[in-house]
Fold Response regulator transcription factor.
Amino acid sequence: MVRAGFAMVLAAEDDIDVVAEAEDGVHAVELAERHKPDVALMDIRMPRMDGLEALRRLTRPGTVNPPKVVVVTTFDDDAYVQRALSEGASGFLLKDSGPALLVEAVRAAASGKALVSPAITVRLLERLNSAGPSPRAPHTALSPREEALVRLVARGLTNAEIATELTISVGTVKTHLTNVQTKLSARNRVEIAAWAWESGLVDGRG
């Protein structure tokens, strides 16, 4: 039922085509190798093969045009998040993130970016906070507007919430995020948030 719901949400978008649905990890790998999708959504726990192993197989070295894999799951354990991202996942969402974030994650992955659920970003940032900050000056290459945006990312706001907070369009938020990721060599929101704490741009109060 969840899979069917995701398919309906994505298929309703003009720029997204759902080419296949898989019932388990083995089937997912088979269908991905057959259809060559740009993006694959993968759960963590699935019959016969879990999502992390399927991710490894789809993105193994030597694979021609591997799909971008977005992990969408109810299991938000930090170890799962870190393993998925280290294995090359192009996003990590919780199933209750909502349809708008799901669509945004697929589009981000297709364009070579990575999106992580804001709630996960905040929790991983809090883990950094408990370890204590590394006193480094903020990156001078960031503009004041980009620094403001990074603070909001570190607080876990979505693109739409950031747009409202800064009184700019969602498109402008995405442009700023792209620029920030390039300047910081960050792959996703978690790495942006981690940099914000480590640099002293935010503190334990957010």
In short: The chain has ten helices and four strands. The chain has two domains: 2-116, 121-198. The two ends are 37 Å apart (CA to CA).
